[in-house]
User: Fold these one by one.
Assistant:
Number 1:
Amino acid sequence: MAISRRTLLKSLVATGIGGLTGGAAYGFWYGRRALEVTRLTLAVSGLPPALAGLRIGLMTDLHRSEWVSHEDVTHAVDRLMATDPDVIVLGGDYVTWGERQFIEPAAEALSRLEAPHGVFAVLGNHDDDREVSSALTRRHIEVLRDVRTQRRIKDTTVDFVGIRFWTRRPAEIAAAARGAGPTTILLAHDPRRINEAAALNMPLVLSGHTHGGQVVLPIIGAVAARKFPIVAGTLRRFDTTMYVSRGVGTVYVPVRINCPPEVAILTLIPAQPHI
């Protein structure tokens, strides 16, 4: 029996809607909670040989909310702590749209984080500058708001420079980094700050913000994150290396498709200078 063009189109539309509905259901019930531990070696320009093997734990974009539960965050904390990091970095967006009722619960869930050389945090675009910072500080997490701090690791000085989401101009970032040595790690919620970091010869940037796109479609890719230099993973620009985490939570819609949440353990090694 011949099939009319109209019948065929109806069937294709129904199949497409069914596929999208099924994908969304999978992304809601399973995809957004299928947390992965990403283990990666990062080559960093000018890294002193003594720091080869330094392990940085990175967790970002918790977005604690009615959709991202206390259990979701504590599970991520447990997975990260199991990697035994030397340093821990938190990349911002602990809640969504500054929802105050979730600030203390988010900070409390993070309170078990500890590492031999410290736990550092920066703020994202969803974070209240005062209340989120205060809640984290009370849990012995050092919040870097356009400032630099130093740690002595394996007889080598390491500078951690943390900037807020709204700190973008090269002069502002340079001011925050003033006095930093050659081994500097820039903590910046927004991965677009790799441009300023490269201009300032900062060897390493750790970021989040993109959620890896959160919904990554076949062929089309991560539509929501096309404005960023990279949606997730590693990017090298001149002598600057950046890692962008897919993050833990979700925003706008409680769904992840082809983009599982993650915590990362990054092992540093020296890199050859860019030519």
Number 2:
Amino acid sequence: MKHPMMTAAIVGTLAWSAAATFPLAAQAPSAESAAPTSPAPGKTPRTADGHPDLSGVWWRGADVGGKGFGGGGGGAQAGGRPAAPPTTFSSLYQPSAQAHAKTLADKDDPTLHCTSTAFGTLNVSLFDVGAVGQIVQTPKFMVLLTETFNGFQIVPFDGRPHRDNVPPSNRGDAVGRWDGDTFVVDKTNFTDTSWISAEGRVSYHSDALHIVERYRRVDANTLEIEATLEDPKVLTGPWVVPKQTLQLAPFDQIMELACSSSDTQSERDAAPPPQKTSGKN
């Protein structure tokens, strides 16, 4: 089954990839509104409080199927031996979770109904099911923006604890702190109705999901992200996500990538028409 959100993500990514060669018309810098001058190569920009500035639009810097998108397939190790398959969230399922996963398929993917993931299809929570995201840093908050579903996450880093008066959510409740030059994000209070990723990759999780991410801006144009996911109700142990390396995009704003679901449209088309009333009491 062809997944509509995969199509949307690819279309959006191709549009952004084209911007690497020539900016989109709406984002092409002009004399009146040019993008800020980038810091000198190799120098990490910093805010007034001395912390690294993570602000910017971040992506993999390549077309779908190119560098960073896993287009090469399995590959092989030295000596011609096949490379071991990467560890995934679902590969760590407990036996009971494996049994439940076998009852699920592409048609059960929550993103078909425009529900965001709990983590991200490309192993980058900033992307959700897309391939580009934006960070806006303020003195108290780190704001993480995704193109898909108009998603966002506000991460306070002024020492406040997790909120205990908000309902569970697809992206969880986040708080942050600085560990030297690394920004650490701790996420809890998830729903159990989203998946870790999308495009039919069965990766359900429980409400015990706990995610810790570490963001480090290596230089002016490079952001490294590490993450560890724990879910004691469904996993045999923590999933340590491979380090992700993102590049600063050649544009300084993301755009809207609206959710379009063929399943959702079919349900809407099949719904009975609203009943007419006379307006009389």
Number 3:
Amino acid sequence: MKSVSSLPLLVFVVILGVGLGIAFVVRSIVPGWPSILISVLAFLLALIASSSLQVAAQWDKAVVLRMGRFQALQGPGLFFIVPIVDTIAYWIDTRVITMTFKAEKTLTKDTVPVDVDAVLFWKVLDPKKAALDVADYQTAIGWACQTALRDVIGKTMLANMLEGRDVISAQLQQIIDARTEPWGITVISVEVKDVLIPPGLENAMSMQAQAERERQARVILGDSERQVAEKFGEASKTYANNPVAFHLRAMNMLYEGLKQNSTIVIVPSSAVETMQLGGLAGITALTMGIGQQNATVAAASGTTGVELEPAEGASS
């Protein structure tokens, strides 16, 4: 795309102005056709000068053809051409250009229709090839990207496409660059923006992921139960060899249960005998001691005390 420059217009106005000024002076001296001839010549000279003067921006390259044949690449900056004989066929932008492309309802290797959006970053390295070897290099790049994307999708499983976008991008870059290299164009990178799948399949995949997470949670819970059982087994061996430790542990568990506010603890008579607390009288004494402690807390907080009930068939 040609950059707009006001320099040719300025040259045209200056030359025409000078010619008309000379024509006015000549008319005042020699009335008649000389002033008209000078005006016409000034107009033609201004037109030729402004047409031959061209300015290309820093990022532009002008492809100049002389009588239909390639003459030269001009730019950036100021350059001249021969009017009528020389023509500028293309103004080629040599900066990095971005282009979006997509493939709609394309079947993957496992026959799933997907919509894929991607972005291409490319640059013209050889403006001569881009102008002479392909009719419209931008349109050609667009079609090359779409066909390459459909080709890659058709050879890829849906799971690999969703998980390995970097791999898909690398494959696209390699294919597109191989196709555009003869045109003097290089592909800098290709990025896959989005992969859209049918809503029904999306819901099914969501349910599958949820089921997989639930399975993992149950496996972890089962493993935790196994580890706890192993630790309990080790603890039982320790208590079997050390009755005193078992007795202290039982008393500690009973105490922890009784010291909680508003707690009713039902203690079987067999457990009372095992802990050797002296029957129900020992339990009652323990409860009264804890009750006095909780009464002080209840007076300040307004909570209820602790009640202990022996289980059915408990010792009396």
